[in-house]
Here is the input.
Amino acid sequence: MKILEYDEVGGDQVLELNVRCFGWFLSPNEVKNIRKVDKRVPEYFAFYAVERNEVLSQVGIVTVDTECTSGKEKVGFIWGVCTRPDAARSGLAMKLMKEAHDRLSGENIRYSFLVTGKSLVAYNLYNELGYKDFASSYWGLRECKSLSKSNSKITLSSKIKNNELVEIFTKYSKGLYGFVHRPENFLQVRNAWTWMPQSKVHVFKDKKSSIGYALVGKEKDILKIRELCCPNKKDISRCIRALELKLKPKYMLSEWTAGIHQINMLGQIGFKPLGSYATLMVKDLKQKHSIKKIQRLYGVKEGKFQMTPVDEY
Here is the structure.
């Protein structure tokens, strides 16, 4: 078995592997676009296990700047772990993961993150590799009322001015830890990874001032909120009402990561937290810190950890 980088294998085989495992059309053109817009992607892009010139398994990496109590911290984020069904349970993914860890350690990176589901077979693999549950994900479900009008003066706009979202997010994330360092072309980066659901942007306006934004997707009568960003917590309920009035969903579904500072506020306005099998895991590549130590570094228990689904890879 050989471990090769993306440019050393056939792009069509990578496409076939990802379609088979994820239904993700990761074509050579898609890879070219990702490399162009996402500067977090390393030159090697991903690692592949190859036998007899056939691509059998994949592990991808990006490096992301995060913020912790000691300052800016560059971390690894693992994506696209998969193995062809006829080569499953042969240890290929574990070998690729170890190669990924060696590369990250060689760049003096301390922590490696990934998102998975506790019900998946891969969850046991990650435990064997030393990953620990860092923060759980939850769904929040809210049944909406039929609103015909509102006393709120908040309006919604889909027109985005230059750096408007960056400015809002910068205000919102002040004093928080975690995934708060975003490039100015963040939405372009996220849209380049085409496995992610496309989100429509709604900017909340109070008179002429922008007070927040939401990244949402609507399926029939369900509005899925992928990110809600309001620098002033007191504006959250008014912005939710504005979404409700404008888009008229029957239900709102919001995903959050345990520890974010918005959880209590969302609960107060009718979002019922639902359990989830999704989990954010972390591995200390230097084997120096306990999971509790890393959680303290990122303010998880204090509710100061920032991460939403659009930060995931």
Notes: The chain has two domains: 2-138+277-311, 139-274. The CA atoms of residues 34 and 193 lie 7 Å apart.
